Protein: PH domain-containing protein
Amino acid sequence: MSDGVLVLRGRHDRLAFGVLTAVLLAPLATVAVTGRAAAPLVALAASGLVLLLFVGSFMAGRILAPATVSPYGLRVRTAALASYDTHARWTQIDRIWLSRVGRVPCLLVRLHDPAAAADDNLQVLRTMRANRRRYGAELLISLAAVASAPAEIEAAIDFFSGNSRRLESVVDD
Structure:
């Protein structure tokens, strides 16, 4: 925790983005240097560029807008390509627990009123309702590559919520 906020930033986000960029831009660099535009190489470069744009925008969202735990509550990205679009105040949070979604450890958050947290964004509200039907919680925060340990996340939730919310450990193996 620093500056009154725990940032749930991934351990490998920047590294993965850099490696992906280098791997996908290598064919373009080869074409530029040699001047030979072999069809397979150009096709690989074109598909690589499309993949880079898609994955890059997703990774940029994770890097620029990681989930945070603060005195105001939780701030997360609900949509993959959006910046912060969901702010859940501590008073809006009904339950927070650790569980797995498939093989991925996640922080799941159930809200009293999802519409208030969605702030009139209908796409975010639809996503939250679908999450509630499928996982039992409106908000899912992947902890697969998060550098913060569950104990640190639990301490931040206890501290910032004034002990009004507790992290439940319900990891299903």
